[in-house]
Amino acid sequence: MIEYKGYIGQIELDDESSLFHGEVINARDVITFQGCSVKELRQAMKDSIEVYLKFCAKRGKEPDKPFSGKFLVRLTPDAHRKIYVAARQSGESLNKWVSRILVETATH
Predict the structure, then answer these.
(1) Which of 71, 72, 99, 97 is nearest to 86 (CA)?
(2) Strands 19-24 vs 2-4: parallel, antiparallel or unpaired
(3) Which of 20, 41, 58, 92 has the fewest CB atoms found within 10 Å of its own CB?
(4) Over 90: is that where the pLDDT of 67 sits?
């Protein structure tokens, strides 16, 4: 994966065409790019994102931000209760506890 201005590109090899294809995975809008080398991929991703940002500006549309910092999780009522109790027992709010646990899990 490569990153530019907070946008993350995931890359796959197309063996038949001997090209790498990439797509920005943390935006709802479709942003793609391709290249034959890492250098070409990085430049193609930068170019695609810059074109996207200019396109949004021209249309007066706010570009899709990579992340807002919020997401919704659906749980069973029993799981919700257990998580709430665990957060309270640790002396944290539910939001702070869940954030801490997710970050710890994602970085291990």
Answers:
(1) 97
(2) unpaired
(3) 58
(4) no
pLDDT at residue 64 tops 90: no
Distances (CA, A) of 45 to 3, 11, 38: 9, 10, 10
What pLDDT, in 10s, does the model give residues 4-17? Answer: 999 999 999 988 98
CB 48 within 8 A of CB 7: no
**Cβ pair 12, 21 in contact under 8 A:** yes
Q: What DSSP string describes 33-89?
A: EEESSHHHHHHHHHHHHHHHHHHHHHHTPPPPPS--S-------HHHHHHHHHHHHH
Length of the chain: 108
Identify the pLDDT of residue 13: 93
Nearest to 29 by CA among 63, 71, 58, 68: 63
Which CA distances in Å does 14 have to 20, 21, 96? 6, 7, 42
